[in-house]
Amino acid sequence: MESVVAEHHQEHKQKISQVIREVSKVVVGQEYMVNRLLVGLFTNGHILLEGVPGLAKTLTVSTLAQVLHLDFQRIQFTPDLLPADLVGTMIYNQKDGKFEVKKGPIFANIILADEINRSPAKVQSALLEAMQEKTVTIGETTFKLDRPFLVMATQNPVDQEGTYPLPEAQVDRFMLKVSVNYPTKQQELEVMRRISNMTFKYEVNQVLTKEDIFSIREGVNKVKISESLENYIIELVYATRKPLEYKLNEQAQYIQFGASPRASINLNLASKAMAYMDGRDYVLPEDIKEVALDVMNHRILLNYEAEADNVKTTDIIKVLLTKIPINK
After folding, report:
1. CATH code of the domain covering residue 58
2. Domain extent for 257
């Protein structure tokens, strides 16, 4: 029985590698972003991508949806967007004399909420409710969203003109907040050459089916994590709430609120996904440390003193990872 499970695991690992190769036909670099999108896909978690314009965030998500052969909808968030534009509404059919449901773009497998911080709170709330409940209510009817259902939201950290920053409680619903960085010189040279070649065309192949995704999710769920590593996750998260108890005196002066329990849950899930994608059925400390920044950087609220001293949440998390021990 174990050999059959191991065989499936190996097959899944090869398919995951193939997914990454297919996406790389279109997107140059950004392997880190693709990896984190797959972590979200395999753990049923939503992703918030933060980066300046032009870093292929939209292209990466749409290409990934093609490779996975999933229904994809891109929604450009704007200040005049209404909740009905997102979830749908009731329209009157004059012929039948009845109201009918017109479903919105949220009824897809992968939703790209482009520049989510450009829309007002009402629209953000409608999206985040669907993320949490996996249902949408239009009129008096509640509809279940198709599985898998994932939201990949982007936001621009630079241009704050006409934006509505997401409240901390809403940001907390995203499993990972991934900072998308500039490409290297060589990668940007390759991008420039591809785009300047007007005849450049790309075609990607479908690699994973919905059944494959659900099977991988089951495999991730079976990944083992030791009690000592479970306790390590709790210690990491608790240290953000009570830093003085962990002798983090310097960091304590900057932390206003520590990470929520969702940090513990998502550290566990994300580290299991990392292990599974690496071909293992057990979690290593490195898996937890690998995902800690993306899981926790939007769940720690710093004070004005931190802003004055130019201290970032990533700086705090890096200190935690070096100072919090793993007790055997």
Report:
1. 3.40.50.300
2. 224-323
- Residue 88 has which token pair? 């749908």
267-300 per-position pLDDT tens digit = 999 999 999 998 888 999 999 999 999 999 888 8
- In this structure, what CATH number is given to the domain that contains residue 288? 1.10.8.80
Q: Does residue 273 contact residue 9 with C-beta atoms inside 8 Å?
A: no
**160 shares a domain with 11:** yes
Asked if the model's pLDDT at residue 6 lies above 80, the reply is no
Q: Tell me: do 196 and 240 sit in the same domain.
A: no
Q: Does residue 234 share a domain with residue 152?
A: no
Count of domains forming the chain: 2
Query: Does any domain span residue 216?
Result: no
Task: Identify whether 219 is part of a domain.
Answer: no
Would 54 be classed as within a structural domain? Answer: yes
**Whether 110 and 10 share a structural domain:** yes
- The torsion defined by the Cα of 72, 41, 295 and 137, in degrees rounded to 10, comes to 60
* Structure confidence by residue, pLDDT tens digits, 228-253: 999 999 999 999 998 888 888 888 88
Domain limit, last residue, from 188, 211, 234: 211
Mean pLDDT of the region 164-176? 79
Looking at the domain assignment, is residue 179 inside a domain? Answer: yes
Q: State residue 142 phi and psi, 5-degree precision.
A: -105, 130
Three-class SS of the chain = CHHHHHHHHHHHHHHHHHHHHHHHCCCCCCHHHHHHHHHHHHHCCCEEEECCCCCCHHHHHHHHHHHHCCCEEEEECCCCCCHHHHHEEEEEECCCCEEEEEECCCCCCEEEEECHHHCCHHHHHHHHHHHHHCEEEECCEEEECCCCCEEEEEECCCCCCCCCCCCHHHHCCCCEEEECCCCCHHHHHHHHHHHHCCCCCCCCCCCCCHHHHHHHHHHHHCCECCHHHHHHHHHHHHHHHCHHHHCCHHHHCCEEECCCHHHHHHHHHHHHHHHHHCCCCECCHHHHHHHHHHHHCCCCEECHHHHHCCCCHHHHHHHHHHHCCCCC
